[in-house]
Amino acid sequence: MSKKREQSVQPPWEAWKLDKTFFRTLAQYNASHPETTLDCVLDGIRTGLENHQPLFNLIPDAPFPARGLVGALAHLIKLGVVSLLSRDATAIILSEVQTVHRAQASVRDFSEQVVAWVIDVKAAFESTVSGHFSWTTWKNLRKMRDLIDEICRWANARLEDKRWTRIGNGMMISTEIAEFNMRINEAKSLFTDLTLINLSGGMDAILSGLWLLLQRQDSITKEIEKIKDKQREQFVSRSYLCCRKDTNIALKSYIIDGIEMQKQTEARRLFLSQNLSPRVVTNPMYDQQGKLPCDEDTRTQVLEDIRNWVNDISPESPNFLWLTGDPGCGKSAITASIARECKDRNILWGQYFINRNNIETTDPNSYFPSIARQFADHSNDVEVSIHDCLKRKPSLMDRISPEQAAALFVDAIGVASKIYPDRPVVVVIDGLDETDKAHLKDTAMIFACLFQRLSLHGNAKVLLSSRTEDDIRNPFARYIDDQHVKHVHLDTASQSSIDDVSAFLRRKIARIVEDNDLNWADWPGERRIEILTRRASGLFIWAVTVAKFIQEQIDIMGTECLNDVLDMLDADTLGDINTLYSIILRETYKNTTSNWEFEKFRRIVGAIVDLCEPLCLADLATLLNLKQRPSSSPVDIIKFVQRLRTVLVAGTGAINSETIPRLHKSFYEFIISQQADSRFRINLEITNGELAICCLTQFQGARTMTSCPWVASTLPTSFRYAFRFWSIHLHKSAGGTAAGIMIANNLSLTRDDCHEVLRNIGNECNFDPVHITFSPNQSRILIASGKHRSAWDAINGFEFKDTHTILQGHKDFVSSVSFSPDSRLLVSGSADKTAIVWDVQSSHMVTSLKGHSRELNSVMYSPDGRYIASASADFTTRVWDALTYFPTAAPRRHARPVRSLAFSPDGTQIVSGSDDHHVRFWGWKDDHCVTMTPAHHRPVTSVTISPDGKIVASSSDDSTVRLWNAELRRPLGPPLEFSRVFGLQFSPKGTYLVAVDAETGNAVFLWKPDTVNSNKPEIALRGHDLVPPVARICSITFSPDESSLVLGCSDHTIRIVDLLSVNHRSLCYVGHSGWVMTVAVSADGKYIASGSVDNNVHVWDMPVLRETHTRDDRPKTHTNFSSDGTFVISASSNKGTRLWNSKNNTFRDIPLPVTSSKGPCVKYVCFSSDRRRIAGACSEADETFQLWDVETCALVASASKGVASQNSDITSLSFTADSRYLIATYTGAPPDVWEEKDGALIHVDATERMGSFAEAEPLAFFDTQSHAPFNLGGALWFPDAAVSGLWVFLDGCIVRAHENGSMTVLSRKN
Predict the structure, then answer these.
(1) Angstrom distance (rounded) from CA 663 to CA 605
(2) Could you read off the pLDDT of 847-869 as tens digits, one per residue?
(3) Which 3-state string (H, E, C) describes 912-966?
(4) Which of 198, 372, 778, 863 is the most exposed place for a label (fewest CB within 10 A)?
(5) Which of these, 721, 759, 720, lies nearest to 741 by C-alpha position?
(6) Which residues pair with residue 951 across a beta bridge?
(7) What is the pTM of this model?
């Protein structure tokens, strides 16, 4: 049949057009009949034809508006599925069969492209303003319609003449197919030429790709949305097509710029994290420091004055307000009130509440970096400014200085003020007088110099509060003036202060009267309340303390004590706050005669007074471990604090193990002064000694930190406190950390006994050493025991993990990973359009799955492990045979990129979610497809199926989560309207449904499936307990036993959150160099897989009980770290000596000379300060000292002991600060000193050069004036220059404090 005749024959389908009426009618019909989308209808036709059903029965009846188009494409599809009809199988020409089969595949692919293209045009039509295309677009659509119809007519003619189904046509088949391919290519060129439609129809796909790449970076996404809206507005313009190429280029350029900007942002934030964050205080806010705002209707006049100052951003208004007042007048309550109000108004850019009870906050070197960190978190522009300043001059972070204040404070406020010129930019700094006294005067001078630096920024407002101490008042007086500083003094004698305190006290007493059903006239009576308010004398702390004391007495003795209490408070001298404190303590302990009770008071209150950092009661009890006798039970600290809550605890909340006691500064000053009764008075020197011993005692448990299961081995708060602050307490107690011997908790030992132990300490058979040290930047605590090394966060206590296997093969970021059910294989999907199957044990690539034309968003193994499913941004999902790795069926299509998929438990069905707003449930074997209704209103971000297969859940960018009945394909109740979430999935046992908050990126919600429609999650994990302040959660999954969550984060880490622990403790894995976009846990619970934007897949061991050793085969090890933390040297009796690179966890063995039959064992190792050399003390028949090169690990030189030290045991090995000399110290012998010259270690006379050595690096912590033993916190201390470092003999172990601040814990073997 000729081509002309084919065109003249009337086709067996209705006429159809691609015009406005067609698209509008089809859109309306699909809205009410979502199961009749073109792709679903054509899939049904294809399935029916393959099952030999009549074609006319498969085309939907009227009023389906696309009958003509569907009828035409149905004939094209039929040509693609028709079978060869030759009865003589032996006559089949193989080459012809293969040619026809290839043509049939092309026909099927082309029909799918037509359907996808029409769906795209329909979506673009719906999204344009008023549903209009340009004239040129409609012209192109008519041309496309004619070409599609012509191809369908040609297909119908081939069905009629059966050329494709009979053998023997030879060249005719090849000619037909060549012609057919030419027409398809012509159509494809039209597809790509319709730029306008591609722009509109493909925009959401671009946004989806950016979402994966940038992980919810809303600022860039919103900008692209603006461009999209702008393009839509231009669709009605005839001139738009003239510049469409420029628009394409501009859009592409903008997206690339956006990606590049995000990379720069990541690099900038990483730089600030490394350079700014180490100086940042983690909890400087008013609520974190326990500062309570003013009660309602108190300090109204002062607060109003400050509010007016804040709101006045005129050039005449001062930038600074200095709030002063006497102790107890309520300064902190006022600053907390202003901070809270400004926070609610979103004008609070920084706050810093200095608190003597938290030594970290009193360090002035942290003031401006902490405020700068808050400014950077508030604005990208300020972040850039701070980054550039530190990039130009990193030394700004060394210490507080006028230059640091100018760069991190003045300049940052200036940038913020320019961003919001019509709004106040507020900073609140409270308690400047509580700055470390040694630095207060200099710090006040730096602040004084700032008064005139903000005059160009009228909206910059800095509220600063302090007492009027000389160290502050004198420098302030030199620079203060009305133009730049507003000074507000809280005068307790003023009528307004008296009235405020009177009103406050009356309200508190009225609450007591009401709660106890009393009569105001009878108690307290107006006369007595007048006396009380007069006694308060304008001091809020007096009124607060009295009200709490009255309530506490009622709780203890009942209301019969009320008159007695008031009689005590009627004394004329009681207006003094110190007298009030004395009365309270005397009344609390009035019937106490036991010295132990007063000792207990001094020990507990002394610890609270002198802690370097606040501890909750549970951690304080662990640190003190306070007992009357060794056999007694520990003191109930919670009960003790409840008894003294009047002076120990702010507020009226319940007191429990998590309560943090906080003292008002007036009580602190009272309890350490001579005005306090000697039974209660705190001696800070004694208290610090006791705390030092308590800290040292904590190290007895160091070994368990390297041998416990991970959930139990989160480094305890008391241990972290002990290691960070033991030396500070010892210094405050004894004037320094001197070398010597300390005997604690075992006073039966004598000094000679200790020396005898030290002489035999070198016998490794008797002791198991555990080494503890800080990383160079003080952020991690490093512990080594045997062959185990562990690193812990010094602040939060979670353990860092850095052992992993890296799988490299992808060329773009990894978006999804999934383990096979037997945990032997792992599949990863990537933006490079491929999926790779890996062998977990060998780390080898098994195969690469190719077929998608755009990036993969999701991959998953079927529950039986026989199949792999993949979802892509090319609008399709595919299923692959997991044995042959060939596709098992034709791709299934959505109208937009497919973001997520999940297998049903029986593996026969798949649910998929797409940017086309639809969730589809389809049987990939039988092609049955159901589109869930109603659809979401925005792209579907994730889908999941419950383990029992009964519930399907989906999340969307429309801020809803929907649950569906998987059997009936219907919704289970209304959608959950909560917030935008992603990563939705059921836990392995179906107990929980989990999702990540897409708005904040740092919150995880867990629902129980039967309560998910309550709009309230069962568990909500939020904030920085999950991830650091600058990080976001990018991916999430469960462990198989549901005991933990695994999170992939934007700070390049994987974090494991223990759901069973009280505080949801976490463990951190470090190894990726980019955002972790996907995580998975193997079914056997042994492995974690993670994929990242660094293009790599990492496989980690799940934390399990670490390997243990029998008593006889325990390795002996010593560990030390280079000054920059890059290298770790470990010397072990069973693993030799190794130099580890801490960044990539690789090591090199260091060769040892063997001069004895048993081989050498290195007892001590150290780095030189310049990181060029490693020194080790080898234990052989004759002890030797070795020197190695760090770069090559080659042996450089060796030496033997000096004559005087031949029979002594070595106690330490170290380099001097200038790396020139190597020094070994011994028990009972002078040190040996060597200098490296010409490849040899030359022995140096220590007596002649000791002065120069001491100048370079003292051999002891410091020199004590007295060499007599003295008592330190219940321990005997013998200053002793003959030993190196401090040796502490405890009950079950010996703790050695090295000169470099590290510790060694020696426990006797069983």
Answers:
(1) 10
(2) 999 999 999 999 999 999 999 99
(3) EEECCCCEEEEECCCCCEEECCCCCCCCEEEEEECCCCCEEEEEECCCEEEEEEC
(4) 778
(5) 759
(6) 965
(7) 0.53
